[in-house]
């Protein structure tokens, strides 16, 4: 087994981090090398404005290692999680290794496909190629987008055929390996016309973050001994573990797709994800995310509403503690006529954690009567915490409604004092204020999403492991959330109007 660092990754040694047993089509290999050749020359941030605030300085490419190792171990926690999800449409991936895939027979007969991206490119090339032909992606707009598009070692492929409505959520559980190596994933979801589905993605990582061997079997390749930044890591030097992802969703006419992400990686992991959704006529794409884990969490979401009447919604809750860094970007690109998009991001940061929200509304010249709303709000629980927000507008046409808003504020001491006078201690008072802060946002989610996010929020606040479990606490939270009202008010009622 060989290992390669992120700083030394190139089209010449790419094959060394891919499975020895995998043989991919020639068109895939050619695309990989073409895109990866541009990776090293691309900037980490596309805008000088963003560079001032970026947390990417935490990333140390010379300490991020990839390997083609296939053998993995399944932790007890993941075994428990697997037993809880295995009877529903689901997949469990550890690193680049598939541990479990299950598609119920009745859904398989109707055409539902859940597989690895590699299997899809080999067994269903017509579906994958059709997607690439129909949706243009500029791989040079972001260096990590180029990385995920070219150097992916694994990933999932989900195909939802025309008019298929899937009642149960499709569960995708992903965990990094416990040997300290990093992973690059490319994930693709194709929702055909009239289909409807919910996908729940859980992201975890192991607490074992040091290299265990420096033998010939674990030889690091691609290093230059003359370059001090690329010295060989030995067993006494800590690796930096990273999860790099490129996720694409293609939502055809009148289809509805919900994609829920629960990011619960440990506090030493770097988690970088680029996400794109292409939304067709009268279709709807909904992103729901709960961001809790990792040292650096950088999520960039682009919702491209191509068809007339297309809708997109991006709702995210961020909870940062200790020295965590959250870099959240959500862009709405209105291409088609009369499209609707909204972004709602709320961040809670404490200790010396930092959050950055960036968002851009683009309404193009053929997107008349479109409506867009973008909001990023943060609350600081102590003086060491920090938050910034950079919303923006680009409007190329008339007869549209577009609003953006942003705020950062300290927690209100008067509210804390009031609640303490009612019998709560200081920590309980803070939690009640935070619950009120995220309540308007969480009401826009379904009961199970709210329950999962509430469970992880509770675990993080109390210092418990960030792992979903079907325990008694979870059951109680689900029962409470089922009885609560789901908000249906029109978020576009209070727009400014541009003519």
Automatic annotation (TrEMBL):
Residues 242-437 form the SUF system FeS cluster assembly SufBD core domain. It comes from the Archaea. Pfam families: SUFBD_core, SufBD_N. One of its GO terms (biological process) is iron-sulfur cluster assembly. Residues 80-172 form the SUF system FeS cluster assembly SufBD N-terminal domain. InterPro entries: Fe-S_cluster_assembly_SufBD, SUF_FeS_clus_asmbl_SufBD_core, SUF_FeS_clus_asmbl_SufBD_sf, SufBD_N. Belongs to the iron-sulfur cluster assembly SufBD family. This is FeS cluster assembly protein SufB.
């Amino acid at each position: 087994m060989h290992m390669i660092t992120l700083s030394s990754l190139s089209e010449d040694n790419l094959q060394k981090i891919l499975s020895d047993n995998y043989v991919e089509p020639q068109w895939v290999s050619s695309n990989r090398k073409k895109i990866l050749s541009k990776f090293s020359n691309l900037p980490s941030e596309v805008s000088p404005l963003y560079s001032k605030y970026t947390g990417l300085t935490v990333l140390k490419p010379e300490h991020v290692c990839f390997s083609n190792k296939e053998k993995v171990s399944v932790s007890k926690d993941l075994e428990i999680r697997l037993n809880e999800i295995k009877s529903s449409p689901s997949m469990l991936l550890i690193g680049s290794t598939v541990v479990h895939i299950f598609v119920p027979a009745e859904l398989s007969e109707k055409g539902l496909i859940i597989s690895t991206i590699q299997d899809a490119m080999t067994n269903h090339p017509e579906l994958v190629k059709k997607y690439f032909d129909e949706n243009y992606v500029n791989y040079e707009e972001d260096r990590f987008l180029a990385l995920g598009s070219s150097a992916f070692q694994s990933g999932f492929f989900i195909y939802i055929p025309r008019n298929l409505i899937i009642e149960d959520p499709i569960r995708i559980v992903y965990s990094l390996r416990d040997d300290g190596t990093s992973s690059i994933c490319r994930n693709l979801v194709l929702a055909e016309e009239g289909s409807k589905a919910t996908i729940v993605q859980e992201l975890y990582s192991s607490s074992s973050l040091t290299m265990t061997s420096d033998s010939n079997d674990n030889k690091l390749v691609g290093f230059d001994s003359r370059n001090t930044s690329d010295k060989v890591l030995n067993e006494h030097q800590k690796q930096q573990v990273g999860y790099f992802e490129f996720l694409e969703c293609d939502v055809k006419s009148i289809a509805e797709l919900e994609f829920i992400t629960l990011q619960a990686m440990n506090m030493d992991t770097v988690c970088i994800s680029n996400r794109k959704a292409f939304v067709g006529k009268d279709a709807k794409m909904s992103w729901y995310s709960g961001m809790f884990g990792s040292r650096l969490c950088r999520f960039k979401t682009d919702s491209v509403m191509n068809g007339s009447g297309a809708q997109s919604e991006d709702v995210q809750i961020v909870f940062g503690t200790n020295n965590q860094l959250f870099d959240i970007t959500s862009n709405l690109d209105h291409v088609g006529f009369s499209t609707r998009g909204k972004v709602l991001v709320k961040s809670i940061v404490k200790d010396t954690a930092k959050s950055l929200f960036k968002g851009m509304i683009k309404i193009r010249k053929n997107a008349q009567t479109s409506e867009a709303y973008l909001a990023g709000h943060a609350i600081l629980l102590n003086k060491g915490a920090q938050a910034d927000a950079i919303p923006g507008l680009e409007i190329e046409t008339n007869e549209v409604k577009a609003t953006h808003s942003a705020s950062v504020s300290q927690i209100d001491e008067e509210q804390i004092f009031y609640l303490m006078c009612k019998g709560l201690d200081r920590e309980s008072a803070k939690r009640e204020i935070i619950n009120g802060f995220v309540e308007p946002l969480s009401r826009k989610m379904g009961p199970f999403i709210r329950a999962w996010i509430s469970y992880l929020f509770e675990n993080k606040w109390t210092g418990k492991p960030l792992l979903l479990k079907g325990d008694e606490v979870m059951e109680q939270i689900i029962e409470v959330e089922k009885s609560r009202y789901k908000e249906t008010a029109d978020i576009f009622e209070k727009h400014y109007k541009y003519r």
